[in-house]
């Protein structure tokens, strides 16, 4: 695992592209992408938001890996004080990271300032793997602070921080895939994992469904804290309000949307 983590660090710029390409290929092979939007325009908007967000991260003097590296040099954090096997470090890191992501996601629906940023993710009128790229650049800032702080508190080795982020990135793309799993598979996995079917409810235009299924990777947090809704529920419409739907495919409008009074 340490070798894999070092590999991810060496090719960190290509890892997100590779993960996205593999899952996009899966979606093209077995998915059912459709919708009323112009595919090139909406995918261009989603990719454009990702590119702008990536550029913003270069201006932020903090990364999750740099926080882990600092903790290692300083002897700060749990695993710098208590040595543990690599597998245990990774399991704790992924569990804690998914737990923190659940609460940040839930807060992004609860607090108006965070929702102004997060609603750009919900503005798309259909769900496919490109939606995993769609986040307002400023939404990355609280996420970086939270997850970098978590890496430091846990005293994660850099390899564990990088591998954890790769796992969570893959889970994010996976949950947005426009695929439907066979019913027996879905029945077995739904109690434990976030599936595309369960996350689809989260992108419903109906608020009671939008405010559910916040988890990434494991659905256990939603079940534990009372925000789970089953994939058997019907979703009438994807997106937000009619106004937001009308500008969903405009990169410029999406970048400016948090500045507007709502």
What would you note in describing this structure?
The structure is a single chain. The protein has 262 residues and is an all-alpha fold. The protein has one domain (2-256). The protein is built from 15 helices and no strands. It has helices spanning 2-10, 15-30, 39-59, 64-74, 78-81, 86-110, 112-122, 140-154, 158-175, 183-189, 196-202, 207-210, 220-225, 242-246, 251-256. Helix 4 packs parallel to helix 8 and helix 6 packs across helix 7 (112-122). The longest helix has 25 residues, at 86-110. The radius of gyration is 18 Å and the shape is globular. The protein starts with a helix and ends in a 6-residue tail after the last helix. The model has no long low-confidence stretch (mean pLDDT 92).
**What is the overall number of helices?**
15
What is the count of structural domains? 1
* Beta-strand percentage range: under 5%
Number of DSSP strands?
A: 0
Which terms would index this structure?
262 residues; mainly alpha; 15 helices
Indicate the topology.
Elements: H1 2-10, H2 15-30, H3 39-59, H4 64-74, H5 78-81, H6 86-110, H7 112-122, H8 140-154, H9 158-175, H10 183-189, H11 196-202, H12 207-210, H13 220-225, H14 242-246, H15 251-256
Helix pairs in contact: 1-9, 2-9, 4-8, 4-9, 6-7, 6-8, 6-9
